[in-house]
Amino acid sequence: CGSQLNQVQQTFEQALAAANLTATVELRLSNCLGRCERGPNAIIQPGRVVYCQLNSTAINRIVHEHLLTNTPIVELCDE
């Protein structure tokens, strides 16, 4: 989201590399999701799990818990 885009992208890239997921997970940037008040946001596919208010801790949890074990993190999800 806006000014935080570069930091969010770098944190995802670093977390994916640390988890050895760069060959199997595709990171895509998107246009505005219209959720600025809850941003920064990410959508994990398949399943369209929407995460909001991302920070480095949340991103690392998403990669290591959701992506590695296919277990969404309920408390970070946005309806």
Written overview of the protein:
- The model has no long low-confidence stretch (mean pLDDT 91).
- Strand 1 (42-44) and strand 2 form a beta hairpin.
- This protein has two helices and two strands; from the N terminus they run αββα.
- With 79 residues, the chain is mainly α.
- Helix 1 (5-18) crosses helix 2.
- 35% of the residues lie in helices and 8% in strands.
- The protein is globular, with a radius of gyration of 12 Å.
- The longest helix has 14 residues, at 5-18.
- A two-stranded antiparallel ribbon has the order 1-2.
- It has helices spanning 5-18, 56-69; strands at 42-44, 49-51.
Large-scale geometry: globular
Low-confidence stretches: none
Structural Rg = 12 Å
Termini distance? 18 Å
Quaternary state of the chains = single chain
Strands side by side in the biggest sheet: 1-2
What is the β-strand count? 2
* Helix residue percentage: 25-40%
The amount of beta strand, in percent, is: 5-15%
Largest sheet: 2 strands, antiparallel
Q: Which structural class do you get from the secondary structure elements?
A: mainly alpha
Helical stretch tally: 2
Mean of pLDDT: 91
What is the chain-wise order of helices and strands? HEEH
Produce a short descriptive summary.
By secondary structure, this protein is mainly alpha-helical.
Furnish the topology, listing elements before pairings.
Layout: H1 5-18, E1 42-44, E2 49-51, H2 56-69
Helix pairs in contact: 1-2
